Amino acid sequence: MLPMSLLSIIELLAVIATAAYGILLAVRKEMDVVGLFTVASAVAFGGGTLRDLFLDRQPLFWIANPHLPLVVLVLALVSGFLPWLLKWMERYLLLPDALGMGLFTVVGTQYALDAGSPWFICAILGAITGSFGGVIGDILCNEVPSLFRPAPLNATCSFSGAWIYMLASEFGPQGISASVIGVLVVFLFRLAAVRWNVQLPAVRFQPGD
Amino acid sequence: MLPMSLLSIIELLAVIATAAYGILLAVRKEMDVVGLFTVASAVAFGGGTLRDLFLDRQPLFWIANPHLPLVVLVLALVSGFLPWLLKWMERYLLLPDALGMGLFTVVGTQYALDAGSPWFICAILGAITGSFGGVIGDILCNEVPSLFRPAPLNATCSFSGAWIYMLASEFGPQGISASVIGVLVVFLFRLAAVRWNVQLPAVRFQPGD
Amino acid sequence: MLPMSLLSIIELLAVIATAAYGILLAVRKEMDVVGLFTVASAVAFGGGTLRDLFLDRQPLFWIANPHLPLVVLVLALVSGFLPWLLKWMERYLLLPDALGMGLFTVVGTQYALDAGSPWFICAILGAITGSFGGVIGDILCNEVPSLFRPAPLNATCSFSGAWIYMLASEFGPQGISASVIGVLVVFLFRLAAVRWNVQLPAVRFQPGD
Asked: Is the model's pLDDT at A209 over the cut of 70?
């Protein structure tokens, strides 16, 4: 794995970026600070919480790392007073978010491997960890989850990266970290999908509906 | 209980039927294949997942049976290319769905009995297993759950069947399988409710509102 | 703690009051009795269920206390026939609801303390137990959760009361029950917020939007 301190920094940046997306979502619904904090927490911690519940991991990662929800609370309070700050931040969120998606995907996949799950299940749990927080945030905001609608590839990057990570762990050459490969694949795949707007098409009963 | 191989076949048919309902729901919302797979999984596995989480059963049944989500993924991918196939399938879904509702109800009720829960709780967990997948699917699609609105009886069939199953287990004559009775009661009750459009009325503050 | 029998009475009143709010919500959506029971259960038990799942407490409190969902079922059935009864009850719901919010907050906070969680996490789990049932009820009704929108303070009362309870437990003078203080603080804070309509403002990108 990556060195612990680097891991913690990526994790913190990823939590800030995903929480910021949640806050932007909540402000658009004219929520108060309670809503900002809850939606931000759901986006930042929802995927990992689902994974921990599905795999029966205790304590939940945000209970074991209380500095993470504390950072989200501070961010929500600051945004309550200075919402334009978030809007300004928005343009800088893509990189830490994509990096965090890579990290969360690899961590979620590894936890499922640790629990002895078959590879297909591990890839699903990696994708849930990496990209399902936004689904819970959208549900709290009463929106059809954007993850399910045509938009630059998101869960697909997590899901593919999870497979690459498992293949690299199993068959990769000695001395190259599978974690680094997994995180980078998700990160670059996501950036490319956003850059060239790669989408899955909407499925319709009649073509051209 | 029923013989294992017959059980597996009913289970597989039920997963396909419920997943197909989920895909139909997702296509109506113009989702992409990620949405189709997730909503289909939610409808097929949501009720059983809630039951497993509520009763702390590990591993979750779809993690222990990874061929089930794999079948759902294949169905979602095929539907992504041939959505009319699903629409054509729709007319044949009632029977496997009703049979699956019977099976899931009996299994869920028995798991709750195994956990030592009182009968009323067992009937609720049977009904959750048998009919709550659709609720989670509807929430993912940003719809008021159809299970809660007037429509042919659904959760009511599960809930009643769970009681019949428990009564038959406790007081039924030797040599008659309570499971078979439970599954059949739910199955026939559901078919009758659809055939004669038996509904619970909407509750209104003023009659005739 | 408070004497057991008084605790049970407050708990029962709180479940009835929160379930009644859920039923009122469900009737506005023209649901049938299945919907009334489910939404009422979600509002009454949703916060405590999230807490039990997050802390891995087994069995869930409503499975261990099956008389509580039974009371909710009776209330839903009665409301199905006499919905005006609920509307008439509405004016009397504030007191038992606020008292229940106090009780649930203190119980949830204490359970998190028992699990060895840090104080900040305990306050969050107290607030989830005290006020998140309504969020799940709103989601089941396809509404933006009212807890996140400007309205008389709700989760804020729980969150503050949880801190007061922990401070009183740790530093309070001998012979004064921290539980009584915690419940009373939440109760009075909530009543005051409703009485004088104390709200958190909606956050907007532009002031005055």
From this structure: no
Measured CA distances, A24 to A195, A207, B130, C188 (Å): 21, 34, 38, 33
Looking at the domain assignment, is residue A98 inside a domain? yes
**Rounded CA separation C161/A69 (Å):** 19
CB under 8 Å, gap of 24 or more: what pairs does B109-112 form? B109/B162, B109/B165, B109/B166, B109/B182, B110/B165, B110/B179, B111/B51, B111/B55, B111/B57, B112/B51, B112/B55
Residue found by looking up tokens 């956050």 in the block: C203
**In this structure, which amino acid lies at residue A166?**
M
Q: Which residues of B touch A121 (CB under 8 A)?
A: 63, 66, 69
- Residue with tokens 């809660």, as numbered in its chain: B148
Nearest Cα residue to A134 out of A120, A151, A121: A151
pLDDT tens-digit profile of C4-59?
A: 788 888 889 999 999 999 999 999 999 999 999 999 999 999 999 999 999 999 99
Its domain, for residue C112, covers 4-195
Q: How many CB pairs under 8 A join A and C?
A: 83
Determine, yes or no, domain membership for C205: no
* Total of domains in chain B: 1
CA angle C38, A138, A48 (to 5 degrees): 90
- Residue B30: which of A117, A143, A204 has the nearest Cβ? A204
Is the pLDDT at C111 greater than 90? The verdict is: yes
* C201 domain-assigned: no
Are residues A117 and B79, on separate chains, in Cβ contact within 8 Å?
A: no
Q: Is residue B118 part of a domain?
A: yes
Q: How far is CA A104 from CA B35, B63, C81, in A?
A: 20, 20, 50
Instruction: Estimate the share of chain B in helix, then strand, then coil, as percent rounded to the nearest 5.
Output: 75, 0, 25
